[in-house]
Design brief:
The protein has about 180 residues and is α+β, with helices and mostly antiparallel strands. About 35% of the residues lie in helices and about 25% in strands.
Length: about 180
């Protein structure tokens, strides 16, 4: 009987002070990690916006070839949106003509889907590019820049035959996942 009472007396466990120390250390680690997580989230939103436009430009190019008709991508930097349509000058925030490829099916992307990411420096003549049905060539040529509140940037460049995703070589603006813009 003496051995049973001795094992009960020496049971291990955490004291309240040890548990409080673990919570304090975890709190310090979280405080250090939160700023880097917010930067990561911000960068991922810029990447998401740029990759969405990249995919939509490739889609517009393939739709022009498939439908054997011009397909337009119209940008609106004021309303921070763009739309894809069979007609020039579609209005991504309502109005006429609508941004749609098929009747009743809207093809509009708003930057609000990507947090505080902004679409800027749109260099297409008339804020629009057109994909030709013969070879999917684009005209006019240009670029769109996406920027996070902290200054990270991703660029989409449209040349005659190619759509390219890149990032400035400036280390403060660079998104490592992309090659440097020329």
């Amino acid at each position: 009987m003496k051995e049973v009472s001795r094992s009960i007396r020496h049971q291990g466990g955490f004291t309240l002070i040890e548990a409080m120390m673990v919570v304090a250390v975890l709190g310090i680690i979280l405080m250090l990690a939160v700023p880097s997580f917010s930067g990561l989230i911000e960068r991922k939103k810029v990447e998401g916006a740029a990759e969405k436009l990249y995919a939509d430009l490739q889609f517009a190019k393939s739709e022009a070839i498939k439908r054997n008709t011009d397909v337009y991508v119209t940008f609106n930097s004021t309303d921070q949106c763009y739309g894809i349509a069979l007609a020039s000058g579609c209005q991504c925030q309502g109005g006429s003509p609508l941004c749609e490829l098929d009747s009743g099916v809207s093809k509009v992307v708003n930057m609000s889907e990507f947090g505080n990411t902004t679409m800027s420096n749109i260099t297409f003549s008339g804020d629009e590019t057109r994909f030709d049905p013969r070879r999917g060539t684009a005209f006019p040529l240009g670029r769109v820049e996406f920027q996070s509140p902290s200054g990270k940037e991703a660029h989409i460049r449209v040349s005659t035959l190619r759509v390219k995703l890149c990032s400035p070589s400036d280390t403060d603006k660079k998104i490592i996942a992309y090659e440097d813009c020329p």
